[in-house]
Amino acid sequence: MLKKRNITAPPQEQQRLQALDRYDLLDTSSEEELDQLTELAALVCGTPIAVISLVASDRQWFKSKVGLTLTETPIASSFCQHVVQAPRLLEVADASKDVRFADNPLVVGGANLRFYAGAPLITPQGHVLGTLCVIDIVPRILTHDQRMGLEVLARQVMKHFELRRNKIARQEEEAQLHQVQQSLLALQQQVKKSFQSPLEQAMLVLDHPNCQTPKEKVKDGVTQLTIAGNEVGQQIDGLLQLKVFTIQGKPCA
């Protein structure tokens, strides 16, 4: 019986897993754009199964799949982890005759997997998140054009991941900016109230017939306080109009 070689953890595996976490892909809903790329991979390669597989520490999870009901498999039975270790297209013509996979549960079990080809999903920083792979239950060999097509589609999957990540980052930034603006608005109201209440009380004292304080002196102080309050309010108004507190050129509020 052919024996499967043990796979050691790839260099900088911790950094790779952290990169995978930053993309926030695991256990998320299906996405039409990715499903279309997966379907196209199956068509280009002529296989009944195609998968976008993300390789985590203890499992490989399928972000998109065609012709497959499984949503994940244990890392021990993962073909894709071999691509993570050596980030280039991996093609296995007949897994039952390959020393690395001959006793793999996906090969000897009910799945009866025979053919596998996986192209790496590589971030701009060089981390391999997983693969775009095609699978069949009969042995086969891809043509040169099919291999090229699979690699092109894998790059398109990665571009989608980048766009998705950037969109999430923008949404988080917009939410933070909105929160800052609301805090400034609350501060503006608090400052106005802090100045307004003493001013009103001072004016009531001045208007009282028994007031002994020189009215001109008090009025001058009130005037200075009013000016200072107005200046603070204007400064806050100016901050709220800064571009950093707007979303796509419009106020957050």
Which features characterize this protein?
253 residues, alpha+beta, 6-stranded antiparallel sheet, two-stranded antiparallel sheet, 6 helices, 8 strands, 49% helix, disordered N terminus
Largest sheet: 6 strands, antiparallel
- Structural class call reads alpha+beta
Helix content: 40-55%
**Oligomerization state:** single chain
Which radius of gyration do the C-alpha atoms yield?
32 Å
Strand portion: 15-25%
Strands in their spatial order, largest beta sheet: 3-2-1-6-5-4
Number of strands: 8
Average residue-wise pLDDT: 82
Poorly predicted segments: 1-6
Shape: rod-shaped
Distance between the termini: 69 Å
Number of helices: 6
H-E string: HHEEEHEHEEHHEE
Describe the structure.
By secondary structure, the chain is α+β, with helices and mostly antiparallel strands. It has 6 helices and 8 strands. The protein has helices at residues 13-23, 32-45, 80-85, 105-108, 144-207, 215-240; strands at residues 49-55, 59-66, 72-74, 90-92, 115-122, 128-136, 246-247, 250-251. A 6-stranded antiparallel beta sheet has the order 3-2-1-6-5-4. The protein has a two-stranded antiparallel ribbon with strand order 7-8. The N and C termini lie far apart (69 Å).
Q: Could you give the topology of this structure?
A:
Blueprint: H1 13-23, H2 32-45, E1 49-55, E2 59-66, E3 72-74, H3 80-85, E4 90-92, H4 105-108, E5 115-122, E6 128-136, H5 144-207, H6 215-240, E7 246-247, E8 250-251
Antiparallel strand pairs: 1-2, 1-6, 2-3, 4-5, 5-6, 7-8
